[in-house]
Amino acid sequence: MRLWLLAIAISMAGCGTLELSRKRPVVEPPAEFVTAYSGALVEIPLDGGTVPRVCAAIAGFYDIPLGQHTETLNGCALTPNLLVGVCIIVWDRELPAIRRHELAHCNGWTHPAYW
Length: 115
Description:
It is a single chain. The protein is α+β, with helices and mostly antiparallel strands and about 120 residues long. The protein has one domain (about 1-105). It has 3 helices and 4 strands; from the N terminus they run H-E-E-H-E-E-H. The protein has a 4-stranded mixed sheet, sandwiched between helices. Strand 3 (about 75-80) and strand 4 (about 85-90) form a beta hairpin. The longest helix has 12 residues, at about 1-15. About 30% of the residues are buried.
């Protein structure tokens, strides 16, 4: 049921950008991006082992290359396009800093160049 809802949310999100968080020290976003998201937000907290598969499925749906080592993902955000305003975040429920990180992507933050 949960994956069915995910599929609906993904299809509603339009063609956004997929931001990924890998199992490295969490990069804290700048304070101006750590705020509540004003659009529609779909939050999917999962067990850590499930996160890489769900993020890879989202990337596959949008034909977004993930590169190697998808097993190291601990979160991702499908950021909204300007017309729809839906943001989907997936994160390891044991890592609240990842939720904050992914939510910052909904608010327009992108990773530093070295990421």
